[in-house]
Write a structure and sequence with these properties.
Length: 195
């Protein structure tokens, strides 16, 4: 899955043509915006994606019809729900044909609700429960994006997550670097300064 900076056609096309098998569009605010995202991801007649896949077409060695069919059937299209406006339109968003999943951005959602970082705040919990319930009723997968921590993953699993993005490359590198430094300190037997 590739997370694009925004849901514009030129960002989406570049990432998909490079071979991403799914796309996450952050900060969506309306069903109309998500409808445009879905159209940018699907080839006609399901959407308006322009031709030009590089890697998915094996650089011209795969038949066009096969590439189009696979893209239209297999591409995983995800809208990130992390604003009050998106929560207000969640029913219309998850009803869109061609959208496969929504992913909750809990921290940005808490900020949009005016309680930044308070993930246990009743407004945040209520909004997340609403997103999960409505999306599941519509047959959509629900994901969560959060830090690389077991307790965070457990929280979202209890709230109904179908998939969880647990941290990212920077968090994994940081964790391993800290663990390695501790191991080196133990092996060397001297105090080393942290970077």
């Amino acid at each position: 899955l590739a997370r694009v900076p925004e849901g514009t056609h030129h960002y989406i096309k570049r990432v998909l043509d490079a071979g991403a098998e799914g796309i996450i569009v952050p900060q969506v605010r309306s069903a109309r915006e998500v409808e445009q995202v879905v159209a940018a991801c699907r080839y006609p007649p399901l959407g308006r994606r322009g031709w030009g896949p590089r890697r998915p077409a094996d650089y011209g060695r795969r038949p066009q019809a096969q590439v189009v069919d696979e893209a239209n059937q297999r591409l995983f299209v995800v809208a990130q729900i992390e604003t009050v406006e998106a929560v207000d339109e969640i029913e219309a968003i998850v009803a869109l044909e061609g959208l496969d999943s929504v992913v909750v951005g809990p921290y940005d959602l808490s900020a949009s609700l005016g309680v930044l970082g308070q993930l246990e705040h009743p407004q945040v919990v209520q909004a997340i429960e609403q997103i999960v319930a409505v999306a599941h009723r519509a047959g959509r997968w629900v994901g969560f994006g959060d830090e690389a921590a077991a307790q965070s993953c457990a929280r979202w699993a209890r709230m109904g997550a179908d998939w969880i993005q647990c941290g990212g490359a920077d968090a994994y590198m940081n964790r391993h670097a800290r663990q390695l430094l501790d191991e080196v300190r133990g092996a060397v037997g001297t105090r080393l300064e942290s970077p």
